[in-house]
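Recall the central idea of this unit: under ordinary conditions, the amino acid sequence of a chain determines the structure it adopts. In this exercise we apply that idea directly, starting from the sequence alone.
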Amino acid sequence: ATQARRRMAVVAATTVFFSLFTIGVETILPLWVTQDLDFDASQWAQLRSLRFTGVFIGVILLGALSDRFGQRLLSVISMLGAAASIIGFWLWGKQVIWLLMPVYGTLMSTAFVNLNTLTQQISYRRQGLANSIYRSIGAGAGIITPAAATWLGAQWGGYPPVFGLGAALLVTSAIILWQYPGEEVPGGLGR
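Accordingly, the structure predicted from this sequence is:
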């Protein structure tokens, strides 16, 4: 197989697990916060603002680090850190949510943007096809994951165990993404 095909296989497999995680967590976070933690809508909105504060920071700081050390490396580190954040939500809930939400936003933004960049690098001649595959996987996950995540929460007696499953999906994404071949990095730790 060509390097472009190997890259596409890695991105496609990563995207399956990453999309299941992202959409699942995006579905259950507001439900968990308002039902299990007894936060009101205003507090959820404040948490969303904190998350996007983290996204803003991630765009500025981790984007530059991604250029220096490579999108693959920073994506893997970000995915593993976000998985740890989700485990923190699960285990300590109210005690850590205000602290971890911006961290989670920073890490997920970096992983998402870098996965997009790696998709663009699959093949300069076939960027449209690469994007179609990448985005259709995410769209497909968007169809099934909200219902599956809420069903699992009902079956498992709450949303925290679904966070554990989500963390496992994200760690799997990181392991798969580490196999991305031939990323060109300007030098430093990313090689």
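The first helix runs from residue 3 to 36.
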